[in-house]
């Protein structure tokens, strides 16, 4: 396992900080903690977005470097998942954030206040997060490629007898197909429903129908966190059915309000009658 915190987690925090610094009546969400995770150079850029006369310039500078898709897609996926999670948190429902990164939903979403929230991620990222936010959710250090997710969760107090929602945001595209299948089997075995993101597999191969794909794929590879997995949207329902889930919703960031057509957000319900994988 690598010892450094995730760079992509930091860029997502920057995107959330950008959106949070828009006027209250225009922003899609408010994340007052995002800026604290940024290195000094990125923090200056985020703070510049507070100023009406400089905001557009800061956004344009980021988009010029990252390309036209990442910022808008990251903001849209955050909003879609916020809404889905808020709707799902009823009764004794537990929340599990898989590959949580610098996700701050446990601190900023009223629907999660007083709930059992479990954050699963690389220990280096979690160490940075603890230093910034302190107490909050239950941190569960896991390497998705090697560790036993159900065992780690139950050791941390997760109750498989209670309803649960698993959020898997910005993770599947960095895993192997085997790791994705193993995690889906674990979530099903734990009795959870699932909200997750994935990339259209056509973005990983050239020629791609997405003009922004080449630049985006190369950028994440240069950062040391290449995309390794994707799904064909037309086959996502069948793929999930093989793992015991029914697809309820599947939209691209573009369809959901802004961003790229290659980045997608899906919601799936566990089928109680499906065999464990």
UniProtKB/TrEMBL annotation:
Keywords: Methyltransferase, S-adenosyl-L-methionine, Transferase
Gene3D superfamilies in alphabetical order: Vaccinia Virus protein VP39 (3.40.50.150)
Any GO BP: methylation
EC number: 2.1.1.-
UniProt signal peptide: none
Task of the protein: Exhibits S-adenosyl-L-methionine-dependent methyltransferase activity.
Protein name stated in the entry: S-adenosyl-L-methionine-dependent methyltransferase
